[in-house]
């Protein structure tokens, strides 16, 4: 339902039949800012009324009852809607005599309807198109070298210059899985834009929300100061910088260490996990083997060592000094703080 000011009521058609583990749907159920329940139940002021169709969160028993809104949207009988894809897009042109992924069956022939069939019909009609997770955004694990499916991200399939019926490019929210609040915050922005109360979400050249992916893991990491002081972990039990043991944080665009994972707590390096670049278009191929130090990690850590070692020593000396109380803190009869009332008449 659309008014002159914006959209009053909107549907969200969420298909997770891409090459996927459904981990992104599971992840977003942990969001609290906002919670998916609050969006669907109309508890966020200013949003359109939202109808969500997601197989994991659906109250239906599945089958044709669940597929009904998707079929209606294909026929142009359900609009406006936001199309959310979870999972990478396989290349059905190389499927041989079968198919890679399907979602329901053709009602006339009984043959499986491929994911690509649905994308071809839903994406052009959608008011907005949003990807949930790295697989849908860039192909992810299923698109790595050697895969037989020819998997790709949705923008690779539809084209990077694709525009939805609402005039928006594809909105990519990567992560393996997607960080809960990252996705829900982005979806909420899209919904506010649909309502006419916000501009289009600002995206970078990889179609990621700029305010989330404009900085690197390193810039928000709890351990970043150790890098500056050339104080590096030698194993995974250390609280220090993990660049030497496989962390790609200095070159990966992701806000998870700063934002946390659930309730502001967690984030890979914050809890001892190295960053493996899961929000990046080149994941996983460009970041493997995961536990090896990144190329350039040896050079950067060697170059910073003389500076870092000196700075760490100087800061240690200053720390000792700063941990001493001033000498005028005493209970003797003479004031030694330097107080001088000479300004008085």
Describe the structure.
Its main location: other. GO terms for molecular function: 3 iron, 4 sulfur cluster binding; 4 iron, 4 sulfur cluster binding; electron transfer activity; ferredoxin hydrogenase activity; metal ion binding. The protein is an alpha/beta fold and 345 residues long. It has two domains: 9-213, Rossmann fold, CATH 3.40.50.700; 215-320, Cytochrome-c3 Hydrogenase, Chain A, domain 2. The protein is built from eleven helices and seven strands. The strands form two sheets. A five-stranded parallel β-sheet has the order 2-1-3-6-7, with helices on both faces. The chain has a two-stranded antiparallel sheet with strand order 4-5.
Q: Which topology of the largest domain does CATH recognise? A: Rossmann fold
Helices and strands, in N-to-C order? EHHEHEEEHEHHEHHHHH
If strands are numbered along the chain, what order do they take across the biggest sheet? 2-1-3-6-7
Q: What's the name of the CATH homologous superfamily of the largest domain?
A: NADH:ubiquinone oxidoreductase-like, 20kDa subunit
Computed over alpha carbons, the radius of gyration is 26 Å
Estimate the strand proportion: 5-15%
What is the helix content? Answer: 25-40%
Taking the sheet with the most strands, its summary is: 5 strands, parallel
Per CATH, the class of the largest domain reads: Alpha Beta
Tally of discrete structural domains: 2
CATH architecture of the largest domain: 3-Layer(aba) Sandwich
Unreliable stretches (pLDDT < 50, length at least 5) are none
Report, as a whole number of angstroms, the end-to-end distance.
79 Å
Structural class assignment: alpha/beta
What characteristic shape results from the CA principal axes? elongated
